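Notes continue from the previous slide.

Worked example: a multi-chain complex. Inputs as given:
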Amino acid sequence: MADPAFFKKAGEFALGEIAQKTGATLVPAGDDSAKKIIRDVAPLSVAGPETLSFLDNLKYREDFLKTNAGACFVTPEMAKVAPAGLTCLVSPSPYKAYAQTAQLFYPETLPKAEISERAWIHPLAKIGEHCVIEAGACVEEGAQIGNDCWIEHGAVIGRNVRVGNHCRIGTNASVSHAYLGDHVRLYPGVRVGQDGFGFAIDPTGHVKVPQLGRVVIGDHVEIGANTTIDRGAGPDTVIGSGTWIDNLVQIGHNVEIGRGCIIVAQVGISGSTKIDDFVAIGGQVGVAGHLKIGKGARIGAQAGVMRDVPPGEEQLGSPAYPSRHYFRQIAALNRLIQKKKGV
Amino acid sequence: MADPAFFKKAGEFALGEIAQKTGATLVPAGDDSAKKIIRDVAPLSVAGPETLSFLDNLKYREDFLKTNAGACFVTPEMAKVAPAGLTCLVSPSPYKAYAQTAQLFYPETLPKAEISERAWIHPLAKIGEHCVIEAGACVEEGAQIGNDCWIEHGAVIGRNVRVGNHCRIGTNASVSHAYLGDHVRLYPGVRVGQDGFGFAIDPTGHVKVPQLGRVVIGDHVEIGANTTIDRGAGPDTVIGSGTWIDNLVQIGHNVEIGRGCIIVAQVGISGSTKIDDFVAIGGQVGVAGHLKIGKGARIGAQAGVMRDVPPGEEQLGSPAYPSRHYFRQIAALNRLIQKKKGV
Amino acid sequence: MADPAFFKKAGEFALGEIAQKTGATLVPAGDDSAKKIIRDVAPLSVAGPETLSFLDNLKYREDFLKTNAGACFVTPEMAKVAPAGLTCLVSPSPYKAYAQTAQLFYPETLPKAEISERAWIHPLAKIGEHCVIEAGACVEEGAQIGNDCWIEHGAVIGRNVRVGNHCRIGTNASVSHAYLGDHVRLYPGVRVGQDGFGFAIDPTGHVKVPQLGRVVIGDHVEIGANTTIDRGAGPDTVIGSGTWIDNLVQIGHNVEIGRGCIIVAQVGISGSTKIDDFVAIGGQVGVAGHLKIGKGARIGAQAGVMRDVPPGEEQLGSPAYPSRHYFRQIAALNRLIQKKKGV
């Protein structure tokens, strides 16, 4: 069970209600299944008889076969091999259904609305309704914060920045020169809106290029801890709605990222690159500047992307190649070694 | 036009004055060009008839040929193909000239000098003239801040640290055990002066080696958001004047970096490595410890440098090789695949 | 000598006492050596006649042969070539012995216990004895801080977090949903306990998976500046006792790291991977999710680990292979180029 020191459970739910809310089918069907009370959610290996779990990654198949869980979200295929006594909630997307259910048990809630006397808020800042602004937070002149926002300890909202509704700005994060949509969440230590890395190289001293753009962030965007997003040099840096960015990512100036993208930890996107919708980029990938990454492209971890990537293509390696090409490179290299040994 | 919520324009300027300040030549020459009034700067694709732009990267050649800009910094070669009606400012370094002009339109200015009552300043700290110290900033015992400095919200200046004149310490940045020159700028979340990663490995518990050096930073240095620079273990960690460091870079203890270097985002430099003047290091490069990187060397993105690099050499790859060698490796690998297919 | 602005020396010591405390053997033996007074520690290249140094890395052999140091920790082998007049402290682990001695000269001391009026501490937080809590620090409701802890400027301890004794939480670091052991040190800007990167991918909007685990950190753990450690999704994220983590490292949710591990800067460990005791991971390594890294394994810098690693194995490269295999790959590639040239 989730540690009550940190997590508050909203209640318990009948499997029928859960199935209905998630669009899952109960197997076996019938009232016995539908009326079964579920008191918590947990991973397969620790779930007990009144707990709901999920199987998404087949690496955890053994956990599934031995689980004590009372119920489990599974694909139709895996439902067939479920252990006796386990009620299955069959779904084409078990992990999504589990996510929705876990939100039901542990909804995110805002603390009681309160603006701490130990926060520093400029008299010309505008704060929406039902906001929490914690001690040590600073909100600068002209900044506008929407309704139901949570500005955590030590977070700093810069001059004239606009933050939409239902946003959460994490501990010690900072935002300047930026417009944020609704339901945007910045994790602790995020840096949004500082100058991009722009200068003209010169032997007598590099000459700074004033960075005159902004950062524009859509709705439902999450940005991970200590990630840095520079503002544009002239154009804006843009993060599309529904895009999720992990920790310690670097987004250079003028980068445009589309909708629904997923960018894993420690990725670096160089300046002026445009990334279309629903692109997925693995951890520690580097993308050179001024490129175009097509819609739905997938870049594997640690790849180094030096050229445009067509829509839907999967690439791997540094320098990055289409994945089939990459696997052939690795195979060829390993054959070479075998040959040498064989001599 | 730059968003007036964030940027304040200093005025408008005649092309003749701009040409004079940047050393550019007007084409066509004559009073019509020289008296033309320019009201702003902008990228080619969005510049209008009273706006000045630049062409530096030939990727943007099409934007140049179709631009509505009133004037444009270009190389002599590109001036020959300029569209009709565009006044060219011909320069051997158009990007530098643009940078100087953009600074003219949008000069960096310090907010009104003021030490916030909500900053915490030790009575034995010394603060220079005309400084801005914002709410939430902390300045420790014995610290010395020069004139015209800007210490942003939540920034922390440690005990006995010295900061030169015209420095800007970004939001929530921290500095300890360090001496900073003039015109040093730390972006938000920068960490300067914490202990290096020094310990003797031991199965009964690694033994910490006290880190007894400092960080010494020259003049006109910029250090990007959330970058970390550890202090020396005995010798100092040194960052030379005019060096620019991007976001999320790691500089280990005892590292010495020369003058005018450029270090792109997410680079890691291991302990005790010495980097000579005017070295350029691409994004996500790793440099092993105790190496020497010669003057003017250039290391390509994602390279892994395991050996000393001679002056002026360009290296690529992991492990890094001279670039010609690296390109041959890639070509050889790709030929192998072709052969296999051909069989 | 270490800069007295930043470091306070505890005294001077006779070589005999130092030899005793570190288990080293004096060469030459006898009272002349044992009574020699040492006033400081320093690297070989700058050490003077009353200073003690060490030789650990043979790269610094020349410094050793020319040193003016009065005494030096060395291996038995190097003691044989010591320059005349140098007293050797012979030890199987000279660096460890040096570390212990440097701690003798420069012990870490807590500032005078004091809770700043400018810190923000919730009335229901519990603070141990002899703690230092600096201006700008925040300690939330229900948090428990042990004895002899140092909470630096701007550090934030979240709701119900427990911090053991003798811990130091660095400037602007943040901790939530976590239990820390004794002698834990978080460097500036560390982020512990934020949500892991957990969501179900969905074209209509990725669905967040509530992150219901914690971060559990053992004793004597050091975590470097701006490193990020996400809390578990259901299980906990665990960092074993005696593990040292460098700057800008990313530890994903549910990761378990054993005892005595060393993780160098900018490493990324993906979710649910288990790392056994005494594993060493070089800089910028990426480890995929759901893997097992065996006890004592060593992963070289920039490697990309995609499969389980057996205990004790050394791996290199991206994708990672056992080091012998990796070196053969590089050699084979370089032979290919030679052949091509030879044609």
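Summary box: Chain A has two domains: 13-105, 173-343. Residues 13-105 of chain A form a domain with the Udp-n-acetylmuramoylalanyl-d-glutamate--2,6- Diaminopimelate Ligase; Chain: A, domain 1 fold (CATH 3.40.1390.10).
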